[in-house]
Structure formats: structure tokens, C-alpha cells
UniProtKB/TrEMBL annotation:
Organism annotation: Desmophyllum pertusum
Segments crossing the lipid bilayer: 48-67
Entry protein name: ATP synthase subunit f, mitochondrial
GO biological process, one term: proton motive force-driven ATP synthesis
Record carries keyword Membrane: yes
GO cellular component: mitochondrial membrane; proton-transporting ATP synthase complex
Source superkingdom: Eukaryota
Length: 82
């Protein structure tokens, strides 16, 4: 059995400090890689469909529900049940 000091969790702070010191460049490259793979799969393919439009609609519905949820919850909270 190893003690907590001998585990790799001890070096998590050093890992994050070294990675965050690089700036936003790795994050931007990761986002570009995700966007390029999405675009290649759904938008610029040979038989493009309505899938990106459906993704945008579902995302907008989820954001709208997230914004309206406190109002829905408060409205149903004051109902009187018999």
C-alpha cells in the first residue's frame, strides 16, 4: 500500500500549472479540430442533410428550457393540490 504522498495525485497542481501557463492555444486547436471533424461529417460531405439544422434547433430548445426552468418550477410550486 502506498501513501498519499507517493501517489500521482500529488502532482496534479503542478500539471495544471504547467498546462495553463501555455495559454489558450491548446484549447483553440482542440476546438478547431472538433469543428473541422463536425464540418467534414455533416456539412461538406457529398450527401449533406438537415442534420446540422436539427442540431441547432435542439441546442436552441435546450437553452430556452434552461432559461425558462426557474419560471416553470415557480409556477407549479404555488399550485394547490386537493
Amino acid at each position: 500500500m502506498t501513501s498519499f504522498g507517493d501517489t500521482k495525485l500529488r502532482h496534479v497542481g503542478d500539471y495544471w500549472a504547467s498546462n495553463l501557463s501555455r495559454g489558450a492555444d491548446p484549447l483553440w486547436k482542440g476546438w478547431c479540430r472538433i469543428w473541422n471533424s463536425y464540418r467534414a461529417k455533416y456539412i461538406t460531405c457529398k450527401n449533406a442533410r438537415l442534420t446540422p439544422f436539427i442540431h441547432v434547433c435542439v441546442f436552441a430548445m435546450a437553452i430556452n428550457y434552461y432559461m425558462e426552468y426557474p419560471h416553470i418550477k415557480a409556477h407549479s410550486m404555488h399550485k394547490k393540490y386537493h
